[in-house]
Amino acid sequence: MKKNQIVSTAGKKINRRNFVQSCAACSACLATIPLMSMQSCNPEEKLKLHIIYSLHDEVQPGPDWPNVGFDFRPVMETFNQALAKNCPEFEFTHSMASGPEDAEKLLKADQDAGTGGYIIFQMNCWNRVVQTFAASGKPVLYVDYQYAGSGGFLVYTAGFLREGRDNIGFVASSDMDDLITAVKQFRTIRTGGSVSEFVAATAKVRKEATPSPGKHHVNPDDLKVLPPDECLRRMQSSRILAVRDTESREADPVMNIPLEYISFSILNDAWKKADKDESRAVAERWQKRATEVTDVSFETLQNSAAMYLGMKEVLKAYDANAITVNCLGGFYGGHIHAYPCLGFHELNNEGLIGACECDIRSTATMVAFTHMTGGRPGYISDPVVDTAREEIIYAHCVAPNKMFGPGGSENSFSIMTHSEDRQGASVRSILPVDYMTTSLKIDQDKKAVIMHRAISRDNDPDDRACRTKLCAEPVGDIEKLFTMWDQWGWHRVTFYGDLKESAYALADQIGWKVVEEA
Question: Which of 97, 268, 320, 405 is the 20 to 30 A CA-CA neighbour of 161?
Answer without folding.
Answer: 97
